Structures
1.
Amino acid sequence: MNGHFGQLRVWFKQLAKNERGGILFLTLLVLFAICSFFLWLLYDYERERMYLDQQANLLTLENGLQVGLMQIAHDPELESGEWHYPSMTVNMKKMNNRYLLNAKLTNGSERRANVYIDNNGKIIRYEEGV
């Protein structure tokens, strides 16, 4: 085992003395390490940006469903409706004592919810993500 570490020590000494083109090898190794670090930083930034975009889309969709929920709470006799906003469209349909809410973003993402009401028009149950 000592022989291998001794060979490595000799090899690094040769590289440091610039024998057998050692400076070129060390330069390429350092450039490779620097490029790898910057590529990792770029990958990490893109991953974080994608996560934040997903969270923003989810929050926008949930806000759209809340708009539909407020419409139901305001006017329980409303049979159906469609509301258009710059970034999304909210659809609502009534089926017996259940409202089907559908919020869809302009990029294609969508989220659905069921809202159940009683005979007095009060909301008794809300199921999101169905």
2.
Amino acid sequence: MLERSGATLGLLLSLVAAIVPHQPNPPAPPAPPTQQAAAPTQQAGPPAQQAATPPAQQAAAPPAEQAQLAARPAGPEPHPPGPPASPPQTRPTELLDQRSEAGTVFRHPDGARTIVLSGGPIRVRRDGGWVPVDLSLRRDPDGSVRPAAAPNTLWLSGGGQSADAAAVRGADGTNTALAWDGPLPAPRLTGNRATYPGARPGADLVIEATRTGFVATLESTGRTPAPPAVTPAPTPASPPAAAPPAQAAAPMPDPTQAAAPAPDPAEAAPPAPAVQPLAAQPQPAQPAAAAAPGPPAVAPLTLRVTRPGAGADSLPATPQLMAGPPGALATRAVLSRVVANAGNQLSLPFDTTVQNTLSTIDMSGDPDIRLGSYDGTVVARSFLSWDVSRLRGQRIIAATLRLYSSWSASCQARGWEVWSTPPVGPATRWTNQPPGDRAWVASTDTKGHDGHCQPGWTSVDLTDLVRTWVEAGASSGTVVLRATDEHDPLSWKRFSSGAGPNVPALGITLAP
């Protein structure tokens, strides 16, 4: 736990170091947004190291790297002939009494303060103090599986017969469960992921713990169960062949899924071939050679939501959530996917994605936020909101938005922009999204496609926008991320959301 706490602090300090360094005298006015976007960004760690880190621990960085990132870029330090009598303090110090679930405050040696507003919970209360969120899954003595330290009460099946495969209970008592009818194999635990091999014919069940609940996915194993043998028609000279043993009827595929949904790009994988229903045919004496089978048709995953004092509602998987280029959600074809969100969606911070093909889906709580297009037709935008009421009356020195880019459609640089916008919430959809006020900054930073552009952190300067919020006395601030060319099929990008492993953060430095 101490190592994880140090890793979290190191990541926050790296954000503080990425902000324009404070000087005792007021700084010169910042460059226009277009020039700021062209400045090189600072990553939290070497690309090769980030790619090899498990999802639940991607925020961690080696101690040596943390010290390097936390150092203020104040130029070379002098080396006197002897040790100094009292070495000056050069690192910011965290004000521990101002910690919150998603907020961190640092004081610089010159009296300036940097407030880091994380886009999701990074700490939870334990025994009267704060501990870092740790989504690593562990087996309990009773055989069930739980994360080490999660903001909500999350439980996963340890295998065997169970009515539910997973369940999460929010602070308001709402329970969201992944309904399951039948036995489950013992899961393989890797970081914040539990894999139940062969949970359904031709598919593994993968459950990923998030900061607001869990994501459950049925991933094709590529092994289609063999069809039952065809019994030849009897002839008059012989008695009828014995009927085969009774078998349970195969689950009917979701009628809205005429084809197996292609996952949304996180790692390259071929698109899932269409699943065609078998037409009734007369039984031949010898069965005809069958074409190569596609992914098996499986019953879609279903969430059961039970609210205090109310009945249970069923939320089936939605095929449109799985739309996207190959490899988007998993390394294998995704057959079904659901997102359980137990977070308080009416509080800040908040983030969500809207997509022009989704008119009824709430995408808050998904571990990804998305922008751009993967085919020139489907378009996504993402919103992030923070509580900025504590900034009233303060003089802003600098403000930096930091995002973790987990996937891009290619390594070719593609523009994306940050716009200001009115507030949004869980009911925000493509059809009712507020219009953007104006673009404040643009970037072409592109990461997360392959070995030539590994996933990593990217930063944009929002100093002018945050100053505008403060001058207007705003209690909250909201931005929308969108592609510069929303019809470019290479503009698709995915960033970690406030529910994901690498939480967005807005760092704001205030004058002394």
